[in-house]
Amino acid sequence: MKNTITNILHRSAVLLTAAIILTATLSTTVLTHEIDQTSRVIWPDLIPIPVGYEAEGIELGKGQDFFVGTVSWSGNLTNSGAIYKGNLLTGEGHVLVPPTGKPVAGLSYDARTDYLYAATGRSGGFSGPRWEQGIKVYTATSGRLLGEIIFGDDMAINDVLVTDTAVYCTDSVSTTLYKLPLEDDGKVFSSTVEKIEMTGFEMAEGYNANGLAGDFDGKELLIINIGTGVLYLVDTATGVATPVNIQGSATSFVNGDGLYMDGRTLYICENFSNFPLGRIAVVELSDDLTQGTFIKYIESDDFAIPTTIIGFGSCIYAINTHYLEFTAEGADTTLIQSEVVKVFK
After folding, report:
1. Are 2 and 141 members of one domain?
2. How far, in Å, are 134, 150, 171, 176, 229 from residue 153 at the CA level?
3. Cβ atoms of 335 and 51 closer than 8 Å
């Protein structure tokens, strides 16, 4: 009887083991199939934003989240000021901030506070009103407006960069760099804005100081002059702006707009270069940021006048403006769609 019971138990254990193995195999097969199906729709090359939204600024948030701000290339302010929040992994998103009628250019995100800073007021084109220029501060999770800080009128606040101790903004029609000091935890403790006059920053006709980049301490910032193509290293304590000595087949970057820095590799988005597409210049910088070597251009047939860029993993993401379409005579701007374009570093 003991042997019979033992044999029955043994056969039961064998059958149970086989069932477990079969179930695990089926589960693995199903899971692999699901992953394979999912992999076909994630990390898209093109991520559309809402039709009629005239985009300019792009910024990375938590994880794979990104934000896009809207201006008014066409002069139609209907959708201006909206901020779109999407996901690089899935391509899905939603309108975080509804249109306000006040254009939003550069964006910068602070993970310490979950604050999203938006440069506001600029018309978005190369002419138009420059009223109530400054920054708006939103909660990046809910889109709730926390406050607006006005710098003044008759300026063109363009890009914004949050650092460890302050938020900095460029004015594209002057040599003034604006600084909003922050508390140690990243909170804004005062609406008082400091002005840093950049000495050595040479102006050209039209727009000048544009994209901002730098280390998180904010002691030195890189600023591109979109008009002359000169890249400057700016000491934020003294305001001294020194041209970065670039070596290689390209030494200046006319149409340089948004900047993205990964370690000491700098990516410069040249909006109207390689017309009518645009391109991204790659420069390897020295440790002290005073020297650089041009490496290559990143080009794509999917570009349509990109302005600003972010980096994630092995990729660069650029926001297409479709500027030429939005500003074409007789264009129906409600039918034009901008998108985020993925290219490899």
Report:
1. no
2. 9, 9, 11, 13, 26
3. yes
Separation between Cα atoms, residue 333 and residue 98, nearest integer Å: 18
| Cβ-contact 231, 224 below 8 angstroms | yes
Number of domains in the chain: 2
Quick one: which of 240, 57, 242, 245 has its CA closest to 136? 57
Distance CA 65, CA 85 (A): 7
- 242 and 314 fall within a common domain: yes
Expressed as residue numbers, the domain containing 301 is 46-344
Same domain? 59 vs 206: yes
Taking only the tens place, the pLDDT of each residue in 169-225 is: 999 999 999 999 999 999 998 889 999 999 999 999 999 999 999 999 999 999 999
Torsion of CA 203, 209, 210, 213, to 10 degrees: 130
In this prediction, residue 190 carries a pLDDT of 84
DSSP for residue 97: E
What residues have CB less than 8 Å from 309, skipping those under 6 apart? 58, 258, 259, 260, 267, 269, 280, 316, 317, 318, 319
